[in-house]
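Incident log, support desk, overnight shift.

02:14 A customer reports that sequence design results differ from what the structure should imply. Their input is reproduced verbatim below. On-call engineer (initials T.W.) acknowledged and began investigating.
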């Protein structure tokens, strides 16, 4: 089994921690609906001028809902990579379980935090959307890891 440089592992964890911090920041009061609408509203008005105010509001809601699975899909991919570089001997199912647990912990903590905010609302639906994104990536990565011949190559470029 080829050795994996310490720098690659450290870099993978630093990138994961930076993305986790970004998710935590995005889940804060500064990114509540009214604030993101100030940014995305004019963008939609410019890109889709034929939309009325109600349609634009619907697009903003869809964008906010779509952000949940998107950011957690990336979180799961980064966690999968960090676990794989640090523990290359782990079976793919173990790696998948810890990747999903990491995403669920962050998603749950973020939504709980939002329930205590005066301008945000925490919701189990948010956790479900987050896990939809994380789960989709983990299923894809498991399939990739279990393809014929995948176990023969272990290294930083194969995780």
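02:41 Re-run completed on a clean worker. Output:
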């Amino acid at each position: 089994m080829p050795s994996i440089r310490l720098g690659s592992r450290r870099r993978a964890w630093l990138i994961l921690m930076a993305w986790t911090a970004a998710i935590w920041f995005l889940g804060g009061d500064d990114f509540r609906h009214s604030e993101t609408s100030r940014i995305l509203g004019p963008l939609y008005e410019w890109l889709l001028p034929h939309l009325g105010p109600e349609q634009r509001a619907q697009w903003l809601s869809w964008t906010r809902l779509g952000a949940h699975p998107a950011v957690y899909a990336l979180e799961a991919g980064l966690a999968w990579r960090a676990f794989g570089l640090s523990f290359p001997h782990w079976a793919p199912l173990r790696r998948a379980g810890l990747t999903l647990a990491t995403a669920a912990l962050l998603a749950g903590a973020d939504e709980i935090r939002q329930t205590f905010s005066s301008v945000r609302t925490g919701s189990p639906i948010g956790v479900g959307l987050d896990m939809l994104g994380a789960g989709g990536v983990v299923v894809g990565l498991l399939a990739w890891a279990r393809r014929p011949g995948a176990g023969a190559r272990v290294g930083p470029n194969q995780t």
